[in-house]
Write a structure and sequence with these properties.
The protein has 391 residues and is mainly α. It has 19 helices and 7 strands. A 3-stranded antiparallel beta sheet has the order 3-4-5. It has a two-stranded parallel ribbon with strand order 1-6. A two-stranded parallel ribbon has the order 2-7. The relative contact order is 0.12.
């Protein structure tokens, strides 16, 4: 029989190994900025067709670069909470950014971005070459007076638009940060894009992201405490990588995340041109992209009124409540939480909703006509059947 001392040694060794494995799974924070103080900014969605309709011809230049997949990928949801989780646990390596999101590991490299953008075999310039760049030609091309400058407002109209795209998608920064400043390298890249010289987009984006991560780590912020570094760029690209690497899918299957909160970026179209003073009126209205759910506007009509998991008694109570108050309000206003509360509290929530509803006199007759079509609560409860195709 084994002695008690040997049993103790074996169990402690096993416990030590388990502790080591558990420590390996626990992600260490490299950025101590509280999550609620971090701001995820989304890349701009560019409507090139609408810009073309207003004589801003950039589509051919982007097609030459092969950036169709890149700009198409910017139209979609961003997961701010998951991007923040990525950011606070990120570590920079010489040619990679490594992080852990809710226990799932991800490594971002330049080659991974090339695959994401469909630019595996494309190479090009990434910065101005000292001593070889013809700056006189650059200034003469992009600035109205042909003189050296760092101000966007003195550029030619097409370059003003291109610089806004560059800073809103590639050298990604918040729109209110140095909004009228463009660096030497950025001026040179603008010149190359409009003169159909190949630009190494994945390298520029990875390099820009890498430096942002490095400068936002605790070690770097201690050296420069006056810089908060609480802005997270490339929210859409990071979100896409989390989706394409199946991290979002795995976390949803494991039940770690449910119905993640999403946002989308701003759009560049004719309305942007009018705000910039480049056009006086909008000739062709921008078309709503039905594949992107907007936080405002007609896209809200695509949201489900009831989910598949909605309790039938809650739906019954909802319909009965509208019959009782003869409401003509938009039913999308009432959230699931309000519906669940209504089932328990009844008249209290009804009175609250009634106070919030502002009825127009000319809609009263319509409201009464609609309310007469509703069945009683008992009838609905006995016959309720919700077809799946409405979802």
């Amino acid at each position: 029989m084994a002695s008690p001392s040997k049993i103790q040694v074996g169990s402690s060794s096993q416990q030590h190994n388990q502790d080591q494995q558990q420590q390996q799974l626990v992600a260490q924070k490299t950025c101590s900025i509280p999550l609620n103080e971090l701001e995820v900014i989304c890349e701009m969605m560019v409507d090139f067709d609408n810009l073309e309709a207003h004589d801003i011809h950039l589509k051919d230049a982007m097609t030459f670069q092969g950036w169709q997949a890149f700009f198409y990928g910017l139209c979609g949801p961003v997961y701010p909470d998951m991007v923040k989780e990525f950011w606070v646990h990120a570590t920079v390596m010489p040619k990679a950014i490594f992080s852990i999101v809710h226990g799932e590991r991800i490594s971002i490299t330049g080659n991974l971005l090339r695959k994401l953008f469909g630019l595996e075999t494309v190479e090009g310039v990434s910065e101005a070459i000292p001593g070889r760049t013809d700056w006189e030609a650059v200034y003469g091309e992009i600035y109205q007076d042909g003189k050296e400058s760092t101000k966007i407002k003195t550029m030619k109209p097409s370059y003003r638009i291109l610089s806004k795209i560059l800073l809103g998608c590639i050298y990604h920064r918040k729109a209110t940060v140095s909004s009228n400043y463009v660096s030497k390298n950025q001026q040179y890249i603008l010149y190359c894009i409009n003169n159909q010289e190949k630009v190494d987009l994945p390298f520029i984006i990875f390099n820009h992201m890498w430096h942002h991560v490095k400068e936002s780590r605790d070690e770097a912020r201690k050296k420069n405490p006056k810089y908060k570094r609480n802005i997270i760029p490339f929210g859409k690209i990071i979100s896409d990588l989390l989706v394409q690497t199946k991290i979002v899918e795995d976390l949803e299957k494991a039940g770690i995340i449910k119905d993640p909160y999403t946002v989308i970026g701003s759009s560049m179209n004719a309305r942007t041109l009018r705000k910039m003073g480049l056009i006086q009126s909008i000739g062709t209205s921008p078309q709503v992209n039905t594949e992107v759910r907007s936080r405002t506007g007609p896209a809200l009509a695509d949201f489900e009124l009831f989910s598949r998991n909605e309790l039938p008694e809650v739906i019954v109570k909802y319909i009965a409540m509208h019959k009782e108050v003869c409401s003509d309000c938009d039913p999308i206003w009432i959230s699931k939480q309000k519906l669940a509360t209504t089932a328990n509290q009844g008249p209290k929530v009804v009175q609250e909703k009634e106070r919030r509803t502002k009825r127009k006199p000319d809609l009263l007759a319509i409201s009464e006509e609609k309310s007469s079509e509703f069945k009683t609560e008992t009838e609905i409860g006995s016959e309720i059947c919700i077809p799946l195709d409405i979802f």
